[in-house]
Design brief:
two-stranded antiparallel sheet, 5 helices, single chain, 2 domains, four-stranded mixed beta sheet, Trna Endonuclease, Chain: A, domain 1
C-alpha cells in the first residue's frame, strides 16, 4: 500500500482581524485543517480563532516525560465561549484494532494530550473537542479533496471514465 499524500502549507488569511496570533505563521497540516480555517474566517459567530497558538504541557503515557501539545485550534465565539479543538481522523480517536506498536503508541500519546487539554480547558471554563471527519461534515466543512469531490459528481465520473479509456488505449 502506497503512502498517502499529506496536504500542508501556509494559510493566507482573508480576515486577519479575526485571527488572534501571528498572521504570518498560520500553517495547515491537512486539508481538513485548511477547510476548518476557511470556515472559521467566514463564520459570523466566531469572534476570533488561532491555530497552534495554545500550548499545553503534558506528561506522555508512553515515556512518562514532559512534552508540549500545540492545540490545532482555539476558537472564541461571540457569546464568550472558548473551545480548544483537535482535528483528527475518526480512526485515530479509537483504540487500535490490530496489534500494531506504532498505532498503539500514537493512540497513547494522543489520549495523553487530550486528557491534559480537557483539564486545561475545564480549569478556564472552556471546552475541549475532537473534530473528526464526521464533525466537520456536520458543520458543513468539506472533508474530501477536490479530486475526490469531483469523482463523486456526474461530470467527475464521466471525466474519470474517459481518462480510464484513454489510459487503456495507451
Amino acid at each position: 500500500m502506497g503512502k498517502r499524500k499529506t496536504y500542508s502549507g501556509k494559510y493566507k488569511l482573508k480576515r486577519p482581524e479575526k485571527y488572534k496570533g501571528d498572521p504570518t505563521k498560520v500553517h495547515y497540516r491537512s486539508l481538513w485543517e485548511r477547510n476548518a480555517f476557511r470556515y472559521l474566517e467566514k463564520h459570523p459567530k466566531v469572534k476570533w480563532w488561532n491555530s497552534e497558538e495554545t500550548v499545553i504541557p503534558y506528561i506522555c503515557g508512553t515515556d512518562k516525560k514532559p512534552h508540549r501539545y500545540f492545540v490545532d485550534l482555539t476558537i472564541r465565539f461571540m457569546d464568550g465561549a472558548t473551545v480548544l479543538v483537535e482535528i483528527k481522523p475518526h480512526g485515530q480517536t479509537q483504540p487500535p484494532k490490530r496489534k500494531n506498536l506504532n498505532e498503539a503508541l500514537t493512540y497513547i500519546k494522543n489520549t495523553s494530550k487530550w486528557k491534559y487539554a480537557k483539564r486545561y480547558a475545564e480549569n478556564r471554563g472552556w471546552r475541549f473537542e475532537i473534530w473528526t471527519e464526521k464533525t466537520l461534515e456536520q458543520l458543513g466543512i468539506r472533508t474530501l479533496s477536490y479530486k475526490n469531490q469531483l469523482s463523486k459528481t456526474k461530470v467527475g465520473k464521466k471525466v474519470y471514465k474517459t481518462a480510464k479509456k484513454v489510459i487503456k488505449k495507451l
